[in-house]
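Q: C-alpha cells for this one, please.
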Amino acid sequence: METPLQVELHDVKSSDYVHELIESNLAKVEKRFGRATACRVVVQAPNAHHKSGEPFGVTIRMALPAKREIHVDKSSDERGADMTFAINDAFKRALRQLETEADQMQGRVKYHATGEA
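A: Here is the predicted structure, written as C-alpha cells:
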C-alpha cells in the first residue's frame, strides 16, 4: 500500500490482538489483490444502552487505483457480537467486492438479456 493502514477503535480497548487481526486480514487481501493504495478500518463497539449481544460495527474503506474505492459498512448478524467474527466478516465482504471490481476492470462481467426482441 502507498499509505499506512489507519485503524480507529471506538469504545473498543486497543490491544495487539485487534491490530494483528486487522493486519492479518489486510495481508490476505493484499496477497490476492495487491493494488490497494490506502485502507482505513473503523471498529465500533455496541452502544452501552442496548441489550447484550448487539453486533460490533466494522467499516472498511479501501482506495484502489483509478479513483475507485471499496466501502464496507455493515454490522453483522447476531454472530457479530463477537468482535473477531465481525472483523473477519467485514474483510470477507471487502474481498468479495474486490473480486467484483477486478472482474469489471478485466471485462469479465455477465450481461443479462433485456428481453426486447
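A few notes: Strands lie at 6-10, 38-44, 57-64, 68-75. The longest strand covers residues 57-64.
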